[in-house]
Design goal:
Blueprint (H helix, E strand, L loop, with lengths): L2 H19 L3 E8 L5 E8 L2 E10 L13 H18 L7 E9 L7 E5 L4
Parallel strand pairs: 3-4
Antiparallel strand pairs: 1-2, 2-3, 4-5
């Protein structure tokens, strides 16, 4: 695995831990829907299903990870959420929510992990 892949996997691990500590249940990680793409984390939050995009960055020219979700990426996440529901049954009573977790890994110190709910 290259450095970027390792960085992303580490960020996803931190994100999954954050969701679990918040009382959610992780249902799937790196779930693929053919050529449509991949959902980083699918979780259950009470009676809602959460499709979670994780963006991990080191400080630098690429900016904050939360800025990485463009309108096109949001559309793709909505499509992937529909694909998940199609394969796993009807929408849950609490519906489907799309969240974003941004992870910043400074050169020194603890990672900064932010969770934004209902971004798309």
């Amino acid at each position: 695995m290259n450095g970027t892949g390792a960085l992303g996997r580490y960020g996803e691990e931190l994100a999954a831990r954050l969701l679990t500590e918040a009382g959610m249940t992780v249902l799937a990680r790196n779930w693929r829907c053919g050529r449509a793409g991949e959902i980083d984390i699918v979780a259950q939050d009470g009676d809602a299903v959460v499709v979670c995009e994780v963006k991990t960055r080191r400080p630098g020219p690429f900016g904050h990870p939360m800025a990485a979700v463009t309108p096109a990426k949001a559309d793709r996440l909505r499509h992937l959420a529909e694909c998940w529901l199609h394969r796993h049954g009807q929408p849950p009573p609490g519906g489907v929510r799309i969240d974003l977790i941004g992870v910043v890994l400074p050169r020194r110190g603890a990672p900064l992990v932010e969770h934004a709910r209902g971004v798309a």
